[in-house]
Automatic annotation (TrEMBL):
Residue ranges of domain Bacterial sugar transferase in the record: 7-206
Name under which the protein is recorded: Bacterial sugar transferase domain-containing protein
InterPro entries per UniProt: Bact_transf (IPR003362)
Family designation: Belongs to the bacterial sugar transferase family.
Source organism of this protein record: Candidatus Gottesmanbacteria bacterium RIFCSPHIGHO2_01_FULL_46_14
Stretches of the chain forming a coiled coil according to its record: none
Superkingdom classification of source: Bacteria
Repeat as UniProt keyword: no
Record Pfam families: Bac_transf
GO MF annotation list: phosphotransferase activity, for other substituted phosphate groups
Length: 212
């Protein structure tokens, strides 16, 4: 069986098993979100860039105040924070939009559980490159013009819930290094490599290393 077909088989079986395993944790997370702050359980996040540049809605548990992404980009009071966000490769270590429960949820990657639905729908894979925001790719390629060809390589594959740089202990690196690691994965990907990344992912979740 060729790689793409076997990978899809693993994605369907794996996401189903993981969905059942994480169901109790997901239910507790939903309750914690509702008790902690007003708003829906799922985050209202901008679309992400999928395979071949196709946009899709990525499911995540809400770990921030409502309309957090829109407010960051449009609220004049957050202009300085947005500038820092873009400067730090679209990450913030100290983000005032994160709720109390959200800090724990994000640290241990519990907000990623709903992405198993994206995997079942075929929009994502269990293992793959990071699912980037459209404006993130535009801004970062302007900042790092040498990454344009790497971005093309990365977008030839489905994004993943976990990936090479997430489990490498280097999740805090800037965009130019991160996109290179994603491109390296796309070039070298194999079932063995995918299983290796999946095996390392639980520790990355438990330790919360590099999570923001």
């Amino acid at each position: 069986m060729e790689y793409s077909l076997f990978k899809r088989f693993i994605d369907i079986v794996g996401s189903t098993i993981l969905g059942l395993f994480f169901l109790p944790i997901a239910l507790v997370t939903c309750v914690a979100i509702k008790f902690d702050s007003p708003g829906p359980v799922l985050a209202d996040t901008p679309q992400r860039v999928g395979k071949n540049g196709k946009l899709f809605k990525l499911y995540k548990f809400r770990s921030m105040v409502i309309n957090a992404h829109k407010r960051l980009r449009t609220d004049p009071k957050l202009a300085g924070l947005y500038s820092q966000y873009k400067k730090n490769s679209y990450k913030l270590k100290e983000d005032p939009r994160v709720t109390s429960a959200g800090r724990f949820i994000r640290k241990h990657s519990l907000d990623e559980i709903p992405q198993l639905l994206n995997v079942l729908k075929g929009e994502m894979s269990l293992v793959g490159p990071r699912p980037y925001y459209p404006d993130e790719l535009t801004e970062q390629q302007r900042k790092y013009p040498m990454t344009r060809e790497l971005v093309k390589e990365v977008l030839s594959a489905k994004p993943g819930i976990t990936g090479h740089w997430q489990v490498s202990g280097r999740s805090e690196v800037n965009f130019d290094k991160r996109i290179k690691m994603d491109a390296d994965y796309v070039r070298k990907r194999s079932i063995l490599m995918d299983f290796s990344i999946l095996a390392k992912s639980p520790w990355a979740m438990i330790s919360g290393k590099g999570a923001v």
